[in-house]
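Appendix B: a complete holo record

For completeness, this appendix reproduces one full record from the ligand-bound portion of the collection. The bound molecule is zinc ion. The inputs are the chain sequence and the ligand SMILES; the output is the full three-dimensional arrangement of the complex, encoded as structure tokens. No fields have been trimmed.
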Amino acid sequence: MRKEQLPWVLIAILVLGYLVFNVVGLVLAGLGLFVAYVASVRLHPRVRHTGWRSCNGSGEKRGTIFTWSFHKCPGCNSGRRVRWGAGHFGPDPIQREYRRNLEARRRAKQDSKWR
Ligand SMILES: [Zn+2]
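The structure of the chain with zinc ion bound, as generated:
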């Protein structure tokens, strides 16, 4: 499933819960989705780096004129990231890795070493 399709599925589940069981259904559907989310960040703690100003999972930022050249993407580790949710609700080693990666990228940018 592509990431762009996901919000519609979530909204459909919430609307269905509301239509069938009213506000109670909405709350139950929300709780169910939260449990599914916590299970998901434990099972799949990583994502490809995509979105605005991303490297689209390549880990490379291409030059505009000399397009065969690149520098390392400052926003990820070789195109992969630990999910925000996994960094906050995931297993301890993943949470440590998340904080360590953030700190390492921050330090590398500060010292201009990520290139
Ligand atoms: Zn990246």
